[in-house]
Amino acid sequence: MTAMIELIDVHKSFGHLLVLQGVNLTVAKKEVVVVIGPSGSGKSTMLRCINGLEPIQKGQVIIEGEDLHGAKTDPNKIRQRIGMVFQSFNLFPHKNALHNVMMAPMKVQKKSKTEAEEIARDLLDKVGLADKMDAFPEELSGGQQQRVAIARALAMKPDMMLFDEVTSALDPELVAEVLGVMQRLAEAGMTMVVVTHEMGFAREVGSRLIFMDGGVVVEEGDPREMIVNPKELRTQKFLSMVL
Amino acid sequence: MGDVANAFFNGEIFKESIWLLVKTLPTVFEVLVLGLVCSYLWGLILSLMRLSRFRVLRYITGAYIDFFRGLPLLLLFVFIYYGLGTAGLKIGALVSGVLGLTLCYGAYSAEIFRAGIQAIPKGQMEAARSLGMTNGQAMRYVILPQAIKLVVPPLTNEFIAMIKDTSLMSVIAVPELLFRAKEKMGVVANPTPLTVAAIIYVVFTIPLIRVAARLETRRRKRPGGGIKTPAGLPPGAEIDLFTADITAQLPKGGEMH
């Protein structure tokens, strides 16, 4: 079976700053890969390279067998299959929750308004926001905004989801509601790559844990085992600080 | 004292001038409405070209904007009407006026639109692109609706300036306020018609000046109220929008596919 995501020797730099120095990663269907690492280790950049938000200098990004940077590839088409949720929510402030979710199905997939609205209502209901459909982003709490953002990404019926530190901007009491949605998504069989500092989530939901440092994957393994018993010195150091 | 009062506020001439000058208003409005629509549309197009990922297009547009921002509008009017006319390309006075306004105010408003577009947080474009939207779709459905709300106050200020600049068309024989006022002044040998023209200008510009000022203060005081400020815009960003040098924030071309 083809891997959902395959990164081969991915190099990425901003000017002279080398952020990714040969990242290799394969994500299989229904896998939940949790990525941890110190800030500046390149984990968010790696995530952004997966859907081409960042161009790369060297290497390959292969999504379901298709080279993202291939000459014949339309990256917009590939991005439709990859949902992404951001640390800063990035909801569209001029649209209410319902229309935030409806926009992409209507404008990108050219679905009818009725159809898009049906999808949006169903998803907002699933993330527990049935009563907030008409609310504008500024009227919602961070946790609610983030759940709208998840619903918005899911509305495109993606094959995989990327989560970029989605709970880092949230007040502590709001973290659980977002993680809860993500956990249910994982249980429903969604392929996920999750950059996070939530070690509890990594342990309970993650099927694989990746530790990144200095722009490379330093160690990977079963989260339950790796958290307790990391092999690499750098992993040990990092885990001793966050646990 | 009496002489001065008679010179600028001669009752008889004042009355005559009012009707004479009010009759020019349809012409002024026609020029203004066409100038407004054309220059803002042209400005929006220019701003998008200025932000294009094609370097050549960016440079050409930048040169255009600099050129027309640096050119006196009066010279432009004279060039289009008399200059091109002499060269054999005869353009009517009204059309010359609208063309001049569009070329010049298009350049001004392009800079405003550009600042408005760049004031929208980068995350908005990324969120839109991550949903599979093309650059054009993201601009149209996500960035521009937010940017246009931001640029309403500065565009209002532009419009006020444009109202005043219609008076420059008097040199190319557009029968507008100043043109007729000067004509009348010559006939009656008294500057009262100028006073009337001034009053008419101010009657239109002052309410707009108040509106523009209110739009701006309301934004600064109540970021959530009335016209919505895009979430994630740091406080004061909108003020910076009109004062700061924003060239440094220009996204580099070709960052995204």
Short précis:
The complex is a heterodimer of chains A (243) and B (257). By secondary structure, chain A is of the alpha/beta class.
Written overview of the protein:
The complex is a heterodimer of chains A (243) and B (257). Chain A is α/β, with parallel strands linked by helices. Chain A has nine helices and ten strands. In chain A, strand 1 (5-14) and strand 2 form a beta hairpin. In chain B, 74% of the residues lie in helices and 0% in strands. Chain B is built from eleven helices and no strands. In chain B, helix 5 crosses helix 6, helix 7 runs antiparallel to helix 8 (135-165) and helix 9 (177-188) runs antiparallel to helix 10. The A-B interface holds A 51-55, 75-77, 79-80, 82-84, 86, 88-94, 103-104, 107-108, 136-138, 149, 152-153, 156 and B 121, 123-124, 126-134, 137, 141-142, 145-146, 149, 224, 228-232, 254-257.
- If you average the pLDDT of chain A, what whole number results? 94
Largest interface: A-B, 32 and 28 residues
The secondary-structure class of chain B comes to: mainly alpha
Regions of chain B with pLDDT < 50 over 5+ consecutive residues?
Answer: 222-240, 242-257
Instruction: Output the structural class of chain A.
Output: alpha/beta
Label this structure with key terms.
heterodimer; A: 243 residues; alpha/beta; 4-stranded antiparallel sheet; 9 helices; 37% helix; 25% strand; B: 257 residues; mainly alpha; 74% helix
Produce the secondary structure layout.
The complex is a heterodimer of chains A (243) and B (257).
Chain A: E1 5-14, E2 17-27, E3 32-36, H1 43-50, E4 58-63, E5 66-67, H2 75-79, E6 82-85, H3 97-107, H4 113-126, H5 142-154, E7 160-164, H6 172-187, E8 191-195, H7 199-205, E9 208-213, E10 216-221, H8 223-228, H9 233-242
Parallel strand pairs in A: 3-8, 3-9, 6-7, 7-8
Antiparallel strand pairs in A: 1-2, 1-4, 4-5, 9-10
Helix pairs in contact in A: 3-4, 3-5, 4-5, 5-6
Chain B: H1 2-8, H2 11-22, H3 25-50, H4 55-70, H5 73-86, H6 93-119, H7 122-130, H8 135-165, H9 177-188, H10 192-221, H11 237-243
Helix pairs in contact in B: 2-9, 2-10, 3-4, 3-6, 4-6, 5-6, 6-8, 6-11, 7-8, 8-10, 9-10
